[in-house]
Queue: 3 jobs
Job 1
Amino acid sequence: MCFVPHPLRHNLRMPIRTALLICLAASTAATGAAWGQQSTVYRCPGPPVLYTDALSVKEAQDKGCRTIEGSPITVIQGPRPRAAPPPASAGGGAGPGTDAVRSADGRVDPAQQRSRDSERRRVLETELRESEERLAATRREYAGGNAERLASERNYQFYLDRMAELKASISRQENDIQALKREISKLP
């Protein structure tokens, strides 16, 4: 309990503010002693923002953390992460497309990897062929920028818009074909 002097008593020379501060300090010290000493909480920048009381003053300064003062921080427990499924055994039991053929150090069997690479090459080459066919059809329709006007293009601006779209489509398809060729060249 803390006693604050009455302002009308002249025999006390201590101002009321000073008495209140002493009283507050005494109650804080008593609370800290009763509940255990609270440590300084730091807010450290960066994704994700970190709130911690496990840093020393020097570590906090090095990381650019600042102290949190005021109301206490409430920590809400998030859901626990699910445990990873056990690895599939090399004996089988897993469906197609799984990593069932792995060695003890986590590497994929070379035969399985060759099979995957050949499948990927086949898919990329099929996609490349289809892209080249689409490009040829678009170039035929574009006709070097001199395509015939359609009946729906009575307004000349509609014709110009269609030519601009065809030209942009040709450019995109050429870029796609170059990207597919680069991907195929990276395969073993």
Note: The chain is about 50% helix and 5% strand.
Job 2
Amino acid sequence: MPLSEHEQRLLEQMEQALYAEDPKFASQMQGSAARARLRRRIIVGAVLVIVGLGLVFAGVTVNLWWGAVGFALMVGGVVYAITPPKTPKVTLGAVGQDGSVREHEHAGRTGKSRHPGKGAKSNKQTLMRRLEDRWDRRRHEQQ
């Protein structure tokens, strides 16, 4: 029995909320498609190895070139089966205090030069300052 339009909208909203709230869990739930792709790569690689092995045997009996092609096909099949498929890079972001997410900028890629007072050192200082402020607030709230 198919879902009604209202139920489909509710399901889509729940799915979007899950992605927004816990993207790691949501990506793990989609792991079955990745496993299917990996299984397919292994099967194709195994078939290539078997065909290559047949060509190696044919090369021994008929012509040496067939054996060389079969060996290359076997190596290619193994490499194809064991290498992971290329996946698009995930852009990382930072969550602001208001809950919004902004993309992370890499200083090396944007061409910005690091100054002595800025960059990683100042980020660590501001992070430490924020952590200390939070710690102080918690201590004052408990008293």
Note: DSSP finds six helices and two strands in the chain.
Job 3
Amino acid sequence: MKNLKYLFLALGLCCFVACKNSPKAEEAVVNEAAKSEVSNLAGDLNFSVPQGSSKINWVGTKVGGQHSGTIDVSKGMVSLRDGKVVGGKFAINMNTLTCTDLEGDSKANLEGHLKSEDFFDVEKHPRNMFTITKVTELINNPSGSHMVYGNLEIKGVAKEVGFIAKIDVSDNLVKVSAPNFSINRTDFGIKYGSASFFDDLKDKAISDQVVLSINLIAQPG
């Protein structure tokens, strides 16, 4: 009985540590991929995303720790109608995946592992895509001005993902910023280190939830 008590205590501590290291994030709405996507030319005015201007921030957690980094949006288009975002399509350059909390060999090793077949298999899937399917306005929501839905394709698997974002539109600039939201990597077939699929991982388990945030800028042309 005493050993059982210690076992429950240890399991509880592991759960506490894992949760403590997870950044606060709203879980994204995830559905099967929408059959009809909004065309990136759906509006009457199109803004392009300059290369290097927009990034996706990521955080992955494991028992006792976490790592963070960025991925570049290599190109894209935002479509406007009557001054409102109605569509868009964006390419995510997986070769730019980088870890920002490590240095030297540790940084290179983690980046190499994330780009390998265990995770994003960048050699076969160098570019992931996000295509807007719907944008709805939010009223009096402190987290953002809109709900953005779109088909997110990772490693050839597409799911419709919905998240809250703040969208600012002016004559010469569209800014889209999405605060922390999480997606389940196993929805896209990335199962390495997942306790949902593999037993006896213990302190080597990696959370299924990946936290993302987005900062995107688009300009006329």
Note: Residues 2-21 form the longest helix (20 residues).
